[in-house]
C-alpha cells in the first residue's frame, strides 16, 4: 500500500532519511513501552561498514537496539515479517531487507556484503530467529562470514528484554561491546564457524551483563566497568556514508522486494 501510494519518495528513496524521521518520535515511544538503559553506546564505530550482531529474545529487540545506536541499521529479517501490510513496508523503507530462513539465501548475504562494503551497518540476530526459552541460542555463521569476507568489524550487542509485551512492559537493557576484528579467521566454513563461536561467547557475556543491569535497577556502570549512556537522539548520531543507499543489481530484487522497483 505505502509503495503504491509513493510514500517512499517522501523520504527521498533513502533509509537514512527514514531513520532521521524515526529518531524524532521513536525514543519517546520506547520510553512509554518500557523503562530501559543502554551501556557502551559510544562503542559503535563512527564510520565504515560493520555487522551489528545481537541476541534475539523479544519482538522489542530491533527498535530497542535502534534507539541506542549512533548509526542507522539495515536489519536482515525473515520475509514473512516484511509481508505485513504497512508495518512491513515501513520496515523496508527504513532499510530492512528480507532473508529466506533455512534456505541458505545467497542473495540476502550478497545484499549484506554490499551494504557493509559501502560503509553501512547491517544488523543480524545471530540465532537466526527469536528464542523462546529466555536464553540466547547457538549462533549461525552468517554475521561472521559477512564480516570476514568484507574485512569489517562485528559489533556485539547483548539485550535482555525476554518476556516483554504490551501487557508486560518489563524493563530492558542493552550492552554494546567493543568492535571485534575477525580478520585472523580463515575464509572458509571452518573459519566462519569458529568466528561465530567467539562472537556467541561475547554475546552471552553481554546479555548476562544486561540482565544483571536490569536486576540491579540500571546502575551507572556494568560490572565490567562499561558506563551507562543515554540514547543519542537526533543530534548524537554519526553521518551516513556517501553513495547509493541500495544495490540495483538483479540479485538484489528478491531481498528488497517491492523496494527494488521503487528505487529504480
Descriptive overview:
With 264 residues, this protein is of the alpha/beta class. It has a single domain (7-228), classed as 3-Layer(aba) Sandwich (Glycerol-3-phosphate (1)-acyltransferase). Helices cover 38% and strands 14% of the residues. It has 10 helices and 8 strands. The chain has helices spanning 7-10, 15-33, 61-68, 79-82, 87-93, 106-117, 142-150, 189-215, 253-256, 258-263, and strands at 36-39, 50-54, 73-78, 97-99, 121-125, 154-160, 172-176, 228-229. It has an 8-stranded mixed beta sheet, with helices on both faces. Helix 6 crosses helix 7 and helix 7 crosses helix 8. The chain is globular and about 50 Å long. The mean pLDDT is 93.
The CATH superfamily appears as Glycerol-3-phosphate (1)-acyltransferase
CATH first level: Alpha Beta
Helical segment count = 10
Q: Describe the global form.
A: globular
Distance between the termini: 18 Å
Quickly give the structural class.
alpha/beta
Mean of residue pLDDT values: 93
- How many strands? 8
Radius of gyration: 17 Å
Biggest sheet: strands side by side, in what order?
4-3-5-2-6-7-1-8
Helix content: 25-40%
Strand content: 5-15%
Quaternary structure type: single chain
* Uncertain regions spanning at least 5 consecutive residues: none
Corresponding CATH architecture: 3-Layer(aba) Sandwich
Task: Please write the string of helix (H) and strand (E) elements.
Answer: HHEEHEHHEHEHEEHEHH
- Biggest β-sheet strands, sense, barrel: 8 strands, mixed
Q: Within the CATH hierarchy, at the fold level, what is the topology?
A: Glycerol-3-phosphate (1)-acyltransferase
Amino acid at each position: 500500500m505505502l509503495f503504491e501510494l509513493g510514500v517512499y519518495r517522501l523520504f527521498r528513496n533513502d533509509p537514512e532519511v527514514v531513520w532521521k524521521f524515526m529518531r524524532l518520535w521513536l525514543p519517546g515511544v520506547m520510553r512509554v513501552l518500557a523503562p530501559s538503559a543502554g551501556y557502551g553506546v559510544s562503542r559503535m564505530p563512527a564510520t565504515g561498514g560493520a555487522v551489528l550482531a545481537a541476541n534475539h529474545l523479544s519482538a522489542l529487540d530491533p527498535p530497542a537496539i535502534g534507539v541506542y545506536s549512533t548509526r542507522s541499521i539495515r536489519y536482515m529479517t525473515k520475509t514473512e515479517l516484511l509481508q505485513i501490510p504497512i508495518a512491513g513496508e515501513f520496515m523496508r523503507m527504513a532499510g530492512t531487507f528480507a532473508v529466506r530462513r533455512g534456505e541458505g539465501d545467497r542473495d540476502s548475504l550478497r545484499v549484506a556484503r554490499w551494504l557493509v562494503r559501502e560503509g553501512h551497518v547491517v544488523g543480524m540476530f545471530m540465532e537466526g530467529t527469536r528464542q523462546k526459552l529466555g536464553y540466547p541460542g547457538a549462533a549461525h555463521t552468517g554475521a561472521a562470514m559477512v564480516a570476514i569476507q568484507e574485512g569489517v568489524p562485528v559489533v556485539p550487542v547483548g539485550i535482555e528484554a525476554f518476556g516483554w509485551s504490551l501487557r508486560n512492559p518489563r524493563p530492558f537493557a542493552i550492552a554494546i561491546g567493543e568492535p571485534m576484528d575477525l580478520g585472523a579467521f580463515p575464509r572458509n566454513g571452518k573459519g566462519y564457524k569458529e568466528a561465530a563461536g567467539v562472537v556467541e561467547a561475547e554475546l552471552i557475556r553481554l546479555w548476562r551483563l544486561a540482565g544483571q543491569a536490569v536486576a540491579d535497577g540500571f546502575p551507572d556502570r556494568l560490572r565490567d566497568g562499561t558506563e551507562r549512556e543515554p540514547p543519542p537522539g537526533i543530534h548524537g548520531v554519526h553521518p551516513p556514508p556517501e553513495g547509493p543507499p541500495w544495490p540495483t543489481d538483479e540479485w538484489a530484487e528478491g531481498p528488497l522486494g517491492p523496494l527494488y522497483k521503487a528505487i529504480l
